[in-house]
Each structure stands twice: as structure tokens, then as C-alpha cells.
Write a structure and sequence with these properties.
The chain is elongated and about 40 Å long. The model has no long low-confidence stretch (mean pLDDT 91). The two termini are 28 Å apart. The protein is mainly α. It contains six helices and no strands. It has a single domain, classed as Arc Repressor Mutant, subunit A.
């Protein structure tokens, strides 16, 4: 999830054009590449947070340039901050 390559770079690495990859992402996943990347990163972040990995470590392992950028995206996506995630996951047990 921390791979910073653009869609063009991934296309060049696989021998597929950027426009072709862009169309494939929209067709197969129903979202753009940046949307898919964010969803994938958030999924991996949830898994790491469930293992009690520190928020800053999660942010960097999942490709965010800073913990604050990660916290902002996480909060906008889930409605709470990643620091409170562990408490929420414990409540359901």
C-alpha cells in the first residue's frame, strides 16, 4: 500500500498504457485509481490498527507522507480518528 508510483509508472512497468489502466480500474472496481489506492490503504490501515500498531507507523506503512494527512483521510472516511479505532474495535467483543 505504500507504493508511491503513479498510474503512468505502473503502466510503464507492466507494458500497459495509462489510459488503458485507468479504464480498467473504472470498469473492474467502479472507481478511479486514486480512489482505489486510498481504499486499499485504509483497509491495510485498519488491519494494522487492529494489531495495535502506532498511528504514525500505520501512516507511513500505508503510504501517507505524514501522520496528520493519514488522520485527516481516516477521519473523513470513518467519522472518527485512528487513535480511537482500537477502543471501538474492543467494544464489539
Amino acid at each position: 500500500p505504500a507504493d508511491p508510483r503513479t498510474l503512468a509508472a505502473l503502466g510503464a512497468a507492466t507494458g500497459v498504457g495509462e489510459r488503458t489502466l485507468s479504464r480498467l480500474f473504472r470498469h473492474e472496481f467502479g472507481m478511479t485509481f486514486p480512489q482505489w489506492r486510498t481504499q486499499s490503504r485504509l483497509y491495510h490501515a485498519l488491519r494494522l490498527l487492529a494489531e495495535d500498531t502506532p498511528v504514525t507507523t500505520v501512516a507511513h506503512r500505508c503510504g501517507w507522507s505524514s501522520a496528520s494527512a493519514f488522520v485527516d483521510v481516516f477521519r473523513r472516511s470513518f467519522g472518527y480518528t485512528p487513535g480511537t479505532h482500537n477502543g471501538r474495535s474492543q467494544q464489539g467483543r
